[in-house]
Specification:
It is a single chain. By secondary structure, the chain is α/β, with parallel strands linked by helices. 33% of the residues lie in helices and 16% in strands. It is built from 19 helices and 16 strands. Helix 7 (96-102) runs antiparallel to helix 9 (126-140). The longest helix is centred in the C-terminal third of the chain and has 21 residues, at 458-478.
Amino acid sequence: MSSSNNPLPPKERLQIVRQSMPEQDPLKRAHNFEEVNLGFTDELALQEATRCLGCGKPRCVQGCPVGVKIAEFVDLIVAKDYLGAAAKIREDNVLPAVTGRVCPQEEQCEGSCLLAHRAGSSSLGIGYLERFVADYERTTGQIGLPACAPSSGKKVAIAGSGPAGLSCAGDLVQRGHDVTVFEALHEIGGVLVYGIPEFRLPKDIVRQEVDNMRKLGVKFETNVVIGKTVTVDELFEEEGFDAVFIATGAGLPKFMGIPGENLCAVYSANEFLTRVNLMKAYRFPEYDEPVFDCAGKNVGVIGGGNTAMDAVRTSLRLGAKNAYLIYRRTEKDMPARIEELHHAKQEGVQIMDLWDPVEYIGDEKGWVRAAKLRKMQQGEPDESGRSRPVPIPGSETEVALDMVVVAVGNTSNPLVQQTTPGLDTDTRGRIVADHEHLRTSKKGVFAGGDIVSGAATVILAMGAGRTAAASIHDYLTTGEW
C-alpha cells in the first residue's frame, strides 16, 4: 500500500534518522519504579511516522504475530488522526498499550521492516508509534472499541487471563459469543501483572486495557483455579459452556538442581517478581516489603533472559548494593531484548557472563551467604546455534551473595492436565494441540500460548489467542471438530 498522507517522496524519507525514545535518567530511575521509557511527543511521533515507506506489500505485517495493519495505522499518524490510528490497531490487537511497551518488535515487525535492510538506515519505530497512539487514546478517554456482532447464544470459558487468554477473549466477544475469563490470582492480567515490573509495564496500563475489554462485554472471574475450584468437565456439564480455551501459561519455575537451592533468600524469579508486583513491594514503605530486604546487600540473578533482566533491575530498585547478572554464556548470547540489557547496564547492573553456579553456600542459620561459581568457555555450537558453554576445570570461585534469584526458565503447571481426562500432554507436561487450529484431544477444548509452546513472548501468546479464537468460532458455528 502506498501512503496517501505522507508528503515526502521515498528518497527524502530515507534521509530522516530514527527518533530516539525519551527516557528517565539512569541514575534516578535505578532507584524508583516509575516507567523508564517516557513515550513520544507529538513531534517525535510525526517525524518517525513520516519515515515509513508505505510498502506495497508491507513485510512488517507478516512479521507481526497478530497481524496489525501497520502501514495503515502509521499513515493515520502522518495525517494526525491519532484516535483513528489507535482504532486501526485495535482491529487486530486488544492490548496496544501493552504490546507497544513489551513486545520484541526488533525481532518481529521491525525486524521485517524494509528500512532495516537499507544501508545506513534503521527500522521504523513501530513499537514506539503503537505506544504513542495507545497512550494518546487513553489520555483523551476516547477509546475506539470495535463493534461486536449480535449474540450467538454460545458460551466460551477461558482459563487464564494472560496475553493468550485476553487476546482470545477479545476476538470471541467481537464475534458475538458470551465469554468468561477465569483467573487463579486476585488480579486480571496473568504475567502482565505478576511477572513484568512496574518500570516496564505500569499496572494501571493493564487495568485500563482490561476495563476496555469489560466494556466490550468480556466477563472476568478472579480467584478461580481451573482444575481445583472447577474442572474443565464441570465447565461443560455444570456451567453450560460450549467451548473451553486453556491459556494457563508456563508458571512453574525451574531450578538447576544444585546444592543450596533450599537456603533462605534463594528465590525463583516467579516468586520474587510476583511478590514484588502483586504484593506491591514496589510501593515500599507504603506497603510492607514482602520479599527479603535486599537494601545494601549483594544480589545475584541467574540467567540471561528478559525475566532475569526484570529481576536484577528490580533488585536494584529495592536497594541492592551490588546487583549481579550471572550467565553461563556470553553477553551477546543473552536472549533478553537488547534494549533491556542496555538499560540494565546503564542503571548499574554488573554482568558476569561465562559464569555458572554450582552451589549456594549458607550460614549457620540457613541463609545464603555466597555462591560457588565456575568459569565457562565457549564450545561448539549447540541446537540453538549459540556456542555451548563448557566448564573450565579448577576455575571455581566464591562470590558473596545475600540473595539469589533463579531465572533459568519455566514449565507448565500440571493442574489442568491432571484433572482433565482425555487431554493429551507431551513429555514435558505441556498440552498437545494441533498447530493450525489449537484443538486438543478433547472435543470442545482448545489450548494455546505457553501451556502449549513453552515460555515465549507476550505477542506470540497473543497470536495463539487469535488463532484459537478463529478456531473456536468455526467450531461453535459449524459444530465440526
